[in-house]
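Colleagues,

For the teaching module next term, I've prepared a clean inverse folding example: a structure given as tokens, and then the sequence designed for it. I'd like students to try predicting residues themselves before seeing the answer, so please don't circulate the second half yet.
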């Protein structure tokens, strides 16, 4: 049975963290859309998310963490990215960086991964409680519309281990994604963060 809990509950982040640490799958609210969340170091839990979403295994998940140091275990952050990170993190911007050796192991050999520090109070509390990165992906069956509130996640009831109700997502649209593995950088997805606001902060 799936545990359902309000994000405003004082113990929501602690209960969710315990479940994730024990190999469980969570559905959590972010400022963009609802996401599946699992321990980034739990390969079996990661595989389960791919199965639940019917997601192509060649499509990587996104890594979330509460701070840059946690992300450095999985990706190598180039100096040129620091200015944009300082301006837009925490926030609705995903940046793709080269993976470390650990990152390649966790991602099935992928040489790059998208990472983000989200701007959602519950998720940040959860990440600090976990003290490890999580792998995330939007709550949907692949190539379908992403969930923007808990009601839209209902098809996964009794499939995941915990659902956290954070109400309607603030932006209700996916994050903007920029590939910064090499120059020239590539806008992979135009999301809820205006690209025009980002360009002047990209170091050339």
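(Answer key — instructors only)
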């Amino acid at each position: 049975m799936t545990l359902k809990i309000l994000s405003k509950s004082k113990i929501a982040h602690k209960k969710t963290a315990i479940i994730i640490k024990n190999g469980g799958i969570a559905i959590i609210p972010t400022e963009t859309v609802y996401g599946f969340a699992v321990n980034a170091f739990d390969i079996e839990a990661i595989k389960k998310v791919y199965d639940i979403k019917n997601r192509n295994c060649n499509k990587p998940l996104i890594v979330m963490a509460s701070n840059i140091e946690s992300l450095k275990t999985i990706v190598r952050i180039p100096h040129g990215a620091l200015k944009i990170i300082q301006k837009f993190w925490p926030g609705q911007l995903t940046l793709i960086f080269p993976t470390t050796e650990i990152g390649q192991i966790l991602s099935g050999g992928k040489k790059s991964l998208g990472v983000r520090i989200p701007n959602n109070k519950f998720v940040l509390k959860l990440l600090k409680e976990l003290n490890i990165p999580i792998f995330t992906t939007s709550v949907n069956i692949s190539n379908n519309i992403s969930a923007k509130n808990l009601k839209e996640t209902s098809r996964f009831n009794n499939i995941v281990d915990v659902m956290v109700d954070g109400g309607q997502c603030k932006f209700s649209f996916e994050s903007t994604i920029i590939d910064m593995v090499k120059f020239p950088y590539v806008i992979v997805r135009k999301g809820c963060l205006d690209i025009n606001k980002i360009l002047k902060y990209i170091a050339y």
